[in-house]
User: Which sequence fits this backbone?
């Protein structure tokens, strides 16, 4: 009952919060980005936190989604919503491609493959001409739904919020279902899982497909919100930021992913006026959390409860 | 002749990949951690050389020697301070911590030295040497010979010295080695220090060709990983053969097809090797126990 109240309260805050900053579009823009990253972070947490597959190329899936959707809208004049769905599908096809090596290898080998994949994708996008090369694509049109152009910052915020809520509902249900339990068994012990009749290959590919799909969706939203994309937005640095989000927020926790995404998106603002790179801060946070509080910041309140 | 020329210049890059891969493999076989920060540690130490050189106006050789000391202590400090405390608890956690170290070092380097690319002097000049119809510059030849010498030296060290034998014993059986009076902790931090020095040398050798900047080692690290995967990740000769093979292959593809998709080539090699022969060219087959 208490958890339900918390969900309702955070939902009300999420709906009302931007209304206090109506004349500060920068803050709304930043919050929108945080929500979009939260979608990517939850999907990454499904992969790493639930199924235990360490991928260092998650931002690449987001990039594939962003480029697919942008090119469909700008070159083929497709409407926004179909483009967004196709972006998710194309991204999940790449998920299958990267899921296959994960059948043969586990642990750090997978991290290597995905790391190389993430860097290779940025190089390929930079190499091709129809993607605009390393200069990227400018002036991407804002999302348009049923003839309604969502060009204001506030409308983009609510669009991202709706997608985030849908993602939360779908993935939370997935995690609590039979499939979710099968995925957790992969994380704990693959050999044991297969001896209990769990089809390890099937679930590994499945988790890559689902995770890449939602990353692709978040990429599409990103492209149409920021209206500028370039290969470097989706490189190794971005993938490591995803890692920072879920490690800091809480591995395997949906609310933790959202908390982490907000944290990692907002913190750089405080460093904007200094020459200090926020990357350092994120790295230090990862190390400290891993050493002192491996369950992530979301676990912090429980710590105080135990003492009391 | 064009072919031979490309093989020769591929060997230069190959020896650098081999050096970097050696550091990664050495750490992996002794401590079981894949050090994702290897490249950034090397980049950071190379910047130390640069700082000593430009701001303190020390001679190049002296700067490198001081930095070797720095890199050694740095590697030891990371192992002792950050990884040892979680060693008994989580394995994936150690890998994630090295990723954190990667981020910190990359960010620190851009904060301290900026994002501009910097010129870095080669250890010897680039006088061309003619071997029949193949041209090598003196610097590349020098790097190749030094790398091979280091690798051979390391091999002899592991084979014959008491510390090398202790290291190999730790690889085989940590518990039994501890019973034999080997200090596992010392072996571990020693290995990390050693690996960091190998990384530094790779950085110093590659910096004159790539310019010095904070992302310099990112691609080198991917290639070092590729070399290690090619060789099997558990085998030191494998890492060397893998490195040289990758260098030559990459140069031939650059010469005959395209120069722009080098990392994609690495990705393809990694995936193909993992699918066909996961234990690499020279690694041992892994047997898992539940």
Assistant:
């Amino acid at each position: 009952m208490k958890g339900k109240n918390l969900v309702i309260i955070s939902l009300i805050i999420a709906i009302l919060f931007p209304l206090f900053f109506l004349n500060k579009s920068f803050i709304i823009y930043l919050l929108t980005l945080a929500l979009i990253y939260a979608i990517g972070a939850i999907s990454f947490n499904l992969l790493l936190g639930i199924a235990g597959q360490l991928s260092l190329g998650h931002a690449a899936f987001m990039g594939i989604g962003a480029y697919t959707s942008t090119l469909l809208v700008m070159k083929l004049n497709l409407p926004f919503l179909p483009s967004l769905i196709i972006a998710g599908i194309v991204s999940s096809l790449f998920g299958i491609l990267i899921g296959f090596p994960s059948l043969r290898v586990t642990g750090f080998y997978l991290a290597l493959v995905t790391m190389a994949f993430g860097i290779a994708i940025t190089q390929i996008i930079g190499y091709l001409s129809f993607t605009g090369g390393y200069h990227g694509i400018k002036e991407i049109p804002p999302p348009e739904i049923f003839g309604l152009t969502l060009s204001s910052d506030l409308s983009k915020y609510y669009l991202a919020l709706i997608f985030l809520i849908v993602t939360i509902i779908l993935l939370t249900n997935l995690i609590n279902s039979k499939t979710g339990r099968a995925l957790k068994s992969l994380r704990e012990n693959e050999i044991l899982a297969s001896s209990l009749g769990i089809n390890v290959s099937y679930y590994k590919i499945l988790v890559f497909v689902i995770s890449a799909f939602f990353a692709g969706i978040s990429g599409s939203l990103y492209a149409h919100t920021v209206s500028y994309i370039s290969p470097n937005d989706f490189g190794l640095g971005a993938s490591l930021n995803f890692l920072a989000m879920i490690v800091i927020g809480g591995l395997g926790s949906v609310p933790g992913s959202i908390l982490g995404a907000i944290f990692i998106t907002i913190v750089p603002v405080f460093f904007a006026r200094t020459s200090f790179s926020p990357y350092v801060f994120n790295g230090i946070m990862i190390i400290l959390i891993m050493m002192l509080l491996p369950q992530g910041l979301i676990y912090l309140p429980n710590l105080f409860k135990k003492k009391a | 002749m064009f072919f031979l020329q490309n093989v020769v210049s591929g060997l230069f890059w190959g020896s650098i990949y081999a050096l970097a891969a050696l550091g990664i493999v050495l750490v992996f076989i002794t401590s079981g951690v894949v050090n994702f920060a290897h490249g950034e540690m090397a980049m950071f130490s190379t910047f130390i050389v640069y700082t000593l050189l430009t701001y303190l106006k020390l001679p190049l050789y002296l700067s490198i020697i001081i930095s070797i000391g720095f890199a050694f202590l740095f590697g030891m400090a990371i192992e002792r301070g950050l990884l040892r405390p979680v060693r008994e608890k989580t394995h994936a956690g150690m890998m994630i911590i090295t990723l954190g170290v990667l981020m910190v070092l990359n960010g620190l380097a851009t904060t301290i030295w900026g994002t501009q690319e910097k010129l870095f002097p080669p250890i010897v000049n680039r006088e061309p040497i003619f071997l029949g119809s193949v041209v090598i510059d003196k610097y590349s030849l020098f790097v190749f010979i030094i790398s091979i010498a280091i690798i051979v030296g390391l091999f002899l060290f592991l084979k014959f010295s008491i510390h090398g034998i202790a290291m190999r014993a730790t690889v085989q059986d940590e518990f039994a080695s501890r019973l034999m009076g080997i200090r596992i902790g010392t072996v571990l931090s020693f290995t990390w220090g050693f690996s960091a020095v190998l990384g530094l040398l790779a950085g110093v050798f590659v910096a004159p060709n790539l310019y010095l900047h904070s992302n310099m080692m990112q691609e080198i690290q991917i290639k070092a990983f590729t070399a290690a995967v090619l060789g099997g990740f558990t085998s030191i000769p494998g890492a060397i053969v893998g490195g040289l093979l990758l260098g030559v292959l990459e140069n031939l593809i650059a010469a005959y097809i395209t120069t722009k998709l080098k990392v994609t080539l690495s990705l393809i090699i990694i995936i193909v090797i993992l699918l066909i022969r996961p234990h690499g060219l020279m690694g041992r087959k892994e047997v898992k126990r539940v």
In short: Chain B touches chain A at residues 34, 36, 82, 85-86, 89-93, 95-97, 99-108, 110-111, 218-219, 222, 225-226, 229, 260-264, 266-267, 270-271, 274-275, 278, 288, 290 (CB under 8 Å).
